[in-house]
Transcriptional regulator, BadM/Rrf2 family
Amino acid sequence: MFSKACEYGIRSAVYIALQSLDGRRVSVNEIAEEIDSPIAFTAKILQLLSRNDIIHSVKGPTGGFEIARKDMDTVKLNMIVKAIDGDKIYVGCGLGLKECNAQKPCPLHDKFVDIRTDLSKMLKSTNLYELATGLEVGLTYLKR
């Protein structure tokens, strides 16, 4: 459903939020290892997240990536998806056709509209704090 970059972006942001709750900044290498992603690919994703004010990058010997506690409540998953994948998940065809709309629908069009609506609601209502705290207490996991 999401691109690989978007999956890694969400996992990165959640991991950074979890570490930020403990007052830690994390390096690209640590994030890449924790989410099982190539370092160079992770760096590009983190750059996108930083440019879109989802995470903060601090340079220098004690630098790394972090998210302020107050921002964890306001950063929703839809912001991460938009920063990395744009809005194609909300407007694209379920079968990947170039032209698919109410006037010229694909066989999945009507069913996929409902799925997209539900997905949009979930992404807009889920914040980093709730995901990070789920990890913190061991209710959820980031690794396979």
Observations:
- Residues 90 and 109 are 12 Å apart (CA to CA).
- The chain has a mean pLDDT of 91.
- The longest strand covers residues 56-58.
